[in-house]
Specification:
The chain is mainly alpha-helical. It has seven helices and no strands. This is Thiamine transporter. InterPro entries: Thia_Transptr_ThiT. Pfam families: Thia_YuaJ (PF09515).
């Protein structure tokens, strides 16, 4: 199989795994972490931004196919399901640097790079959700400021998501660095 075909198959599989993890029942309503972020960020670090952004886009589109879209308006759906999910591949912009550190046995530096890339990626996604919360979901805030409401809801979900991603990276990079170095 060619290098591109391998990467495309991985892209589709990761998007499917991310979506499958999105089907875990919400245990804390809007505050539930986005478990699909874990494989997506790991994949973006493995394959780079091109495939990471594509996997994020597919993950967002899968929400439509499975009827898992909370629809208020076209712009809200575009922002929260197309843009926000696509940004999960941003960690891939650090991929070459990260993999170079792994190849040269600089595991601690690679871990710090991955943690920084993951933090930036999750932060950007949840800033998008925060903005959407202020613009589109303000009516759910009740007497609370829409800014505070969106910060609490999206900040909590983003914080939990980041914690799971950082935990996975903290375990896998020192113990299984080869997972991030594709042969093809």
């Amino acid at each position: 199989m060619s290098k591109n075909l391998n990467a495309l198959v991985e892209t589709a599989l990761i998007a499917a795994v991310a979506m499958a993890l999105s089907l875990i029942p919400d245990f804390a309503s809007w505050f539930t972490p986005s478990f699909g972020a874990v494989p997506l960020i790991l994949f973006a670090l493995r394959r780079g931004s091109k495939y990471g952004l594509t996997a994020g886009l597919i993950w967002g589109l899968l929400h439509f196919a499975l009827g898992r879209v909370y629809y208020l308006s076209l712009s809200q759906v575009f922002l929260e399901y197309i843009v926000a999910f696509t940004t999960m591949g941003i960690a891939g912009y650090f991929s070459d640097y990260f993999k170079g550190q792994l190849k040269s046995q600089q595991t601690k530096k690679a871990l710090l790079t991955a943690l920084g890339a993951a933090s930036l990626t999750v932060f950007i996604r949840y800033v998008i959700h925060f903005v959407a919360g202020v613009i589109f979901w303000a009516s759910y805030a009740g007497d609370m400021s829409p800014y505070l409401y969106s910060f609490i809801v999206n900040g909590t979900a983003g914080g939990f998501t980041l914690a799971f991603v950082l935990l996975a990276l903290g375990i896998l990079i020192p113990t299984q660095p080869h997972l991030f170095l594709p042969r093809k």
